[in-house]
Amino acid sequence: MDRSKKMTETESEIMEVLWASEAPMSAAELIDYFAQHHGKAWKASTLATFLSRLNQKGLVDSVRRGRVPYYHPIQTKTAYMQSMAQEVLDTMYQGSVTKFFAALCGDTPLSAKDRKELKAWLDKEM
């Protein structure tokens, strides 16, 4: 997997907040949010490091309002998840959905419900 796009757990937590936000958020707003909702007392420099890494990975950008940068996602959560899934498929299964499903299921057969749902999805997508 392309490590340059793969997020750490903390980066993922930050992205979840940004994806859920209806407007770009300042570093101060993010620090307050994580303190209140996750009990994390981050210093501004710590958050700046995470935001810089997310920017380098092409996942966030900022817009200045006066002297304050406000951060927003560049990519939707759905687009990010699709790109990561495609990377796993391409890297580990040579792009073969069949090989992926075989590995996913292993020795466990799909239930009738799972087969029905998968068939309905395939029919819809085709």
Please give a structural write-up.
The chain has helices at residues 9-20, 27-38, 44-56, 77-93, 97-105, 112-125; strands at residues 25-26, 60-65, 68-73. The longest helix is centred in the last third of the chain and has 17 residues, at 77-93. A three-stranded antiparallel beta sheet has the order 1-3-2. The protein has six helices and three strands, in the order H-E-H-H-E-E-H-H-H. The chain has 126 residues and is mainly α. Helices cover 61% and strands 11% of the residues. The mean pLDDT is 91.
Short account of what is shown:
The protein has 126 residues and is mostly helical. It has helices spanning 9-20, 27-38, 44-56, 77-93, 97-105, 112-125, and strands at residues 25-26, 60-65, 68-73.
For the largest sheet, list the strands in their spatial order: 1-3-2
Beta fraction of the residues?
5-15%
How many E strands?
3
Over all CA atoms, what is the radius of gyration? 19 Å
The global form is elongated
What count of helical segments does DSSP give? 6
What is the helix content?
A: 55-70%
Distance between the termini: 27 Å
The biggest beta sheet reads: 3 strands, antiparallel
Kindly name the structural category. Answer: mainly alpha
